[in-house]
Write a structure and sequence with these properties.
Blueprint lengths: L6 E4 L3 E6 L12 E6 L1 H11 L4 E8 L2 H13 L1 E2 L3 E4 L6 E4 L9 E4 L16 H6 L2 E5 L8 H12 L4 E5 L10 H11 L5 E5 H8 L4 H10 L4 E5 L5 E4 L4 E4 L12 H15 L3 H16 L11 H14 L2
Parallel strand pairs: 1-4, 1-9, 2-7, 4-5, 4-6, 9-10, 10-11, 11-12
Antiparallel strand pairs: 2-3, 7-8, 12-13, 13-14
Helix pairs in contact: 1-8, 6-7, 8-9, 9-10
Length: 319
């Protein structure tokens, strides 16, 4: 792949080990599936599935799981030029339990340290970062050095060019405290144009779970668009000029993990196309719902045709 990218993400990668048995405790599961995981990586896959040139800046271990991830990413059409191996660290694993509709515990194995936290500022391709139409980073990348300095260096160099997104992807087990996370999220926000997260994630920088208050607080940090995902209550998207709320898509939930990443990739698609904000959110909601109705994350990312079919069905049902 040559030339500038439409979507470039930076952050977490790992292998998701999901039970093939629904409603069974992890200690009793006997069969598993192996999938590409990690929020930034999943967003890159989702964007590629929607027809965009995409890449992810990340690090794996120099091991069989790392080789699996790089091979799988290429099969999805994601450029792996910025995916390197860290020889002394193992590729992270994430196990989950599947108890639909709303209980999906995750167990991260990122010890002694995840390779994706070893991204260094002097390794970054600043030109590629600045030229990408969408640059997407996650809060996890701010949790430890040297990834924290690399993430901030990338954002500072980009200087709010184009669409620059901070995924508020706050995972408590990856931070010393929520207060520490708040400090670094607030440091990063002035460099981005879009912030997106669920109510728990938006509470980290804003201190509130009220959707409108959280959205307003995020906008007051200087961003252009705040997206607050509210689960069963749908999604709220706010700019200085307007606020839109879009109801969720009703589906039979199989595994809610990964739905937010599908939402992110679809949101990039709509923003790149210059759609009205409500249309972007409807499209993104439909993408998230499709993945929630499937078992895996990256493998489950929908095509434009699949998302359009859900959006059309909803519009017809509302007439």
């Amino acid at each position: 792949m040559t030339g500038s990218l439409e979507v470039l993400t930076m952050g977490r990668i790992g292998v998701d080990i999901y039970p093939l048995e629904v409603g069974v405790r992890l200690e009793d599961v006997t069969s598993f599936g192996k999938y590409v995981g990690g929020s930034a990586t999943n967003v890159a896959v989702a964007a590629a599935r929607l027809g965009h040139s995409s890449a992810v800046i990340t690090r794996t271990g120099d091991d069989p799981f790392g080789r699996f991830l790089r091979t799988a990413l290429r099969s999805y059409g994601v450029d792996t030029r910025f995916v390197a191996a860290v020889p002394e660290l193992p590729t992270p694993l994430a196990f989950c339990e599947i108890f639909p509709p709303d209980h999906f515990p995750i167990y991260f194995y990122r010890y002694p340290k995840a390779p994706d936290l070893e991204i260094r500022a002097d390794e970054l391709d600043i030109a590629a970062i600045c030229e990408a139409e969408v640059f997407w980073v996650t809060v996890t990348g701010l949790s430890q050095e040297p990834s924290r300095s690399a993430t901030l260096a990338a954002l500072e160099a980009r200087s709010r060019t184009g669409i620059t997104v901070l995924d508020l992807d706050y995972r408590p087990m990856l931070w010393a405290s929520q207060q520490e996370a708040r400090r670094w999220v607030l440091t990063a926000l002035p460099y981005v144009t879009v912030a997106v997260g669920n109510l728990d994630e938006c509470e980290t920088p804003t201190g509130t779970r009220d959707p409108m208050q959280a959205g307003r607080a995020l906008l007051n940090s200087g961003i252009d668009l705040a997206v607050v995902k509210q689960g069963p209550a749908g999604v709220l998207a706010m700019t200085e000029e307007s606020a839109v709320e879009v109801a969720p898509v009703a589906v039979e939930i199989v595994n809610g993990i990964g739905a937010g990443d599908a939402f992110g990739g679809a949101m990039c698609h709509g923003l790149l196309a210059g759609w009205e904000l409500a249309d972007v959110m409807r499209f993104a909601n439909a993408a998230g719902a499709i993945v929630a109705s499937r078992l895996s994350c990256s493998d489950a990312m929908p095509t434009v045709a699949e998302i359009d079919a859900v959006v059309t069905d909803r519009a017809d049902a509302g007439r």
